[in-house]
Amino acid sequence: MTKCTRLLTFCVAVLLTASQAPAQFIARDPGPRGGPAGAGGTLPGLSTGQIDVFNAGRNDFEETDTIGTGLGPRFNLDSCAGCHSQPATGGSSSAVNPQVSVATAFGARNVVPSFIRPDGPVREARFKYKANGTRDGGVHALFVISGRKDGTGDATGCTIQQDDFEGNLARNNVIFRIPTPTFGGGLIEMIPDSACIPRSTNADASGAFTSICRAGTIPVSTPATRM
Questions:
Q1: Does 89 map to a domain?
Q2: Total domain count for the chain?
Q3: For 141-156, what is each residue's pLDDT tens digit?
Q4: Which strand (E) or helix (H) includes residue 50?
Q5: Quick check: pTM over 0.85?
Q6: Which helix or strand (DSSP H or E) is residue 7 part of?
Q7: Which domain range does residue 126 map to?
Q8: CB-based contacts of 175, cutoff 8 Å, min separation 6
């Protein structure tokens, strides 16, 4: 049998095998599921006092801030739950991005950055580098209170301005983060440092870490900003 004949026979065999194989399964995103959220509630078995504490925390999380209650001078949104609402309070961003409407609410003079869209996710922006070329990495709140007058405070005379997001975006100097669900965050908060820090250095004989626990610190000098 010549080389060409053998090659032709092989190709025909491959084609026959492929034609008899079952159709390839293609995964498809079904989208948000219907029915109850199945998240955002309390753990079973809590005492009345513990449930009261949970509800008080959720009420605070859902509170809408104003100038008089501490909004600004820079902010990403006026409510924690505004960013964390899907599929329930404490989750991720909703189908409609509330950052678009809050930008100019009560007369605020903000310009909505091009990366914030009504049907897109809530976004938090960070700059990779500062103007002097040193590392930045910090959150740059999208909006300011300048021009806002909401009944609890008057910032019509405020002159603070938004950061140059479009310029930094053009220089590929912006990175984003979307809201991370906070479900179970209270349980993580209850883990004491004394339990976490020793495990952050545990390794087996091969040098592989035996714990997912990682210890880190947050500088206390970092100014608080409404996320």
A1: yes
A2: 1
A3: 999 999 999 999 999 9
A4: helix 48-62
A5: no
A6: helix 3-20
A7: 58-201
A8: 125, 126, 127, 128
